[in-house]
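I hope you will forgive my troubling you with a question about protein structure. You will find the record immediately after this paragraph.
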Amino acid sequence: MSGKTNGCVVSVVTRAGVPILTIPSNDKANIFAMLVYSLINFASALGVKTKTLSYDIRGRKLHILLAEKTFLALYVPGYLDMKARRFLELSSSLLEKLNNTIVEEGVIDDTIIRMTREEIMRIATSSGIPIGGITTFRKVCGDLYGELLSRGVKGDIFRGYFRVGYFPRLLNHRLIEREKNPLLRRVLELCDGNNSVAYICDTLGIPESKLYRFIAGLLGRGLMTLEVGFELVDNVPQDTSDTA
């Protein structure tokens, strides 16, 4: 599996909203599952009856495969969409197996988690989906949250989880190689569209005003873009049980 940032996430959750597994594993992974669960509930409230749901979200694809007791969500960059569809085809048998194994949707044991992980890794290898890479959950979850709001879903249950952010993206990566100042080189490396100005400043310990001046110079030369969106905050509320 690739070790670079690829934004691929796969999550398997019961229809009761209990996460079974999310890969990559992360302390924010359950929030990703909650966001997907909210999208499913919203679609259901609108009377959508299909077994699959698909969303285009800021250059990425979110595919959701629904079964009787579980659902699987796969979030990938747009260029991996064909492989993602193959992944979903191969996942049908896993969800059927879970339907036959799970007795109570609110109770998941280690055996089910282990079996699900083994199957997901096998399917990922067969379909060519690199789910083992690094994923910026702050931005991934922020984009899903923005999608919920754009569709008219009330974000009350996620109050305190997200903040508005400005995300710089460097367009000419040769600038990184040319930059001699170690701090500025690190700034340029973090300007990949996944990290907000606030996050970069917190990480590197620099004032936001200084970074904005640096970014403004690159924007004026057409070497960078700046996108507004949402990002997951580091200290999210502890009670994540209400996913209704």
Q: What stands out?
A: DSSP finds eight helices and seven strands in the chain. The chain has a mean pLDDT of 90. The CA atoms of residues 64 and 73 lie 4 Å apart. The two ends are 35 Å apart (CA to CA).
